[in-house]
Amino acid sequence: MRRQGRKRELLVVAVACLAALAVVNLPPQVQSDARHLIRETALRPFLELNGTIATARDRAFGFDVARERLDSLILPAIAHRRLVQENRELRGLLALAHRHRRRAIGATVIRLGRRGSESVFHLDVGLASGVTPFAAVITEDGLLGQVQEVFGDYSVGYYWSHPDFRVAAMTPDARAHGIVEAARGTLREQDRLVIRGTAFLSELDPGDELVTSGRGGTFPAGIRVGSIDGPAEASAGWSRSYYVVPAVHPGLVAHALAYTESGAAAVATGSPRPGGEGEAR
Amino acid sequence: MTVRLAFLLAALVVLHLMANVALPLGALAPDLFTVTVLMASQRLGAAWGAALGFALGLVEDSVSLTSFGASAFALAMVGGAAGRLAEVLKSDSSAFRFVLFAVGKWSRDLLAWLVSDAATRPPVADALLVEATVAALYAATVGVAVGAFLSPSPRSA
Predict the structure, then answer these.
(1) Which CATH class is domain A166-247?
(2) Do A115 and B135 lie within an 8 Å CB cutoff?
(3) I need a surface site. Which of A16, B88, B121, B145 has the fewest CB within 10 A?
(4) Which of A99-108, A262-271, B142-151 is predicted least confidently?
């Protein structure tokens, strides 16, 4: 009787372990659906509580900062209107088409602290708000990350610190181009970025700014990525790599803007090439 | 299963989700899912430990974007093995529980690391030698403290 009970116990253990191994090897779309199902059921109250706390904290402590930022935007906005008018007239004289204007939507960033998912965030906007997979997520300081999965009323993305994150970047004067990716610090205490593949002869100095170049079509051009910290490595005569201080520190972000049309989607549908201008709503 | 044990296991699960998803506290929060699974397997047997480990592992995996199922596999394996070990050794002392929780938590991290996506997992030295060891000692301390609320395990008698 006892031996039979032990056999049954071993069978349950074996089934649980094999089922878990099967889950690991499921197709990505099925895994995504399963994750969505669990988030919408077991995790829903906890994710909503996280979003509520983040919003409340932002409202409680962010009013003075928001007022300061709003004030600082008034003069540039007045100058911008005049520039837009001049640009429109000049494009009209040159018979150029209107620039493609991207739109972005404000979202609460729900940060997850679990070990192994520190680089993942949730946004409280999804398909219903027009967010698409691979859309860039930005703050007023620069690039925060990228949306990966989009569902009805929320989306999931990763910060620049995720190992899969890549973005084409350049100096604002287009002197040097390269691919920026995350460089993990020992024990995660010093996560930063690294730009690889810049031309060997176009040397960069500490403090030089980097912005998205728009190459590849996923990220709009002109978003601040960070600034050069120092050289990382060089392959003699071919290319250089530099460490980059990120423009945005994910731990401090509670609110961000998500583009509602990803560049990848625009390229795929043959829409006009983005010019980097944006419009938040 | 006693009402007290069921209540404690449920409370640990809710506390883990509060600390890791709702607040989130990051490294300050102990891995209470592993403590829950080890406690269940020690008190209720390997089958309960493995089944609970599989279910809680899936919940844990659902918040990340890669390696879905890695935590489910690790917790199911650890739950099954810990149940069997507790049955063979038949001990319920604090020292035994501390070693069980520490080794269980470290093994859980090792197994999850092994089946995770090689492109996105952290380097072995960071993940297993330092982070996992500190996390294992933390989880063991919390596990022993939580276990003090319960009467001696009926399986150790």
Answers:
(1) mainly beta
(2) yes
(3) B88
(4) A262-271
Going by DSSP bridges, is the β-strand pair A100-111/A274-280 parallel, antiparallel, or unpaired? parallel
Cβ separation A47–B57 shorter than 8 A = no
Domains of chain B: 3-152 (1.10.1760)
DSSP secondary structure, A218-265, as one string = SSPTT-EEEEEEEEEEEETTTEEEEEEEES--GGG-SEEEEESS-HHH
What residues of chain B lie within 8 A of the CB of A116, using their CB?
Answer: 64, 67, 71, 112, 116
Strands A255-259 and A209-212, sheet pairing: unpaired
| Residue B79 tokens, joined | 């739950």
CA angle in degrees (0–180, nearest 5) for B16-B46-A23 = 65
Sign of the alpha-carbon torsion through A228, A231, A234, A236? positive
Are B69 and A26 a contacting pair at CB < 8 A?
yes
Q: Is-contact B135 B34, C-beta < 8 A?
A: no
- CB neighbour list of residue A19: distance below 8 Å, 6 or more residues apart: B54, B72, B76
Q: How far apart are the first and last CA of chain B?
A: 15
Nearest to A117 among B63, B112, B123 (CB): B63
Torsion-angle region of A98 (φ positive above 0: left; ψ -120 to 50: alpha; else: beta): beta
Nearest to B69 among A10, A20, A42 (CB): A20
Q: Do B76 and A115 touch (CB under 8 A)?
A: no
Q: In this prediction, does ipTM exceed 0.95? A: no
Q: Evaluate whether B66 touches B116 at the Cβ level (below 8 Å).
A: yes
DSSP A30-84: HHHHHHHHHHHTTSHHHHHHHHHHHHHHHHHHSHHHHHHHHHHHHHHHHHHHHHH
**Residue A63 pLDDT more than 80?**
no
Q: What is the pLDDT of residues A137-172, one digit of tens each?
A: 999 899 999 999 999 889 999 999 898 899 999 999
Distance between first and last Cα of chain A: 69
**Distance, in angstroms, between B67 CA and closest chain A CA?**
7
Local structure of B111: helix, strand or coil: helix
Block residue for tokens 């390997």: B46
Residue spans in chain A of domains classed CATH 2.40.10.350: 166-247
* C-alpha B65: how far from chain center: 21
Residues 6 or more apart whose CB falls under 8 angstroms from that of A65 comprise none
What confidence score (pLDDT) does residue B25 get? 85
The CATH architecture one would assign to domain A99-160+248-281 is Beta Barrel (2.40)
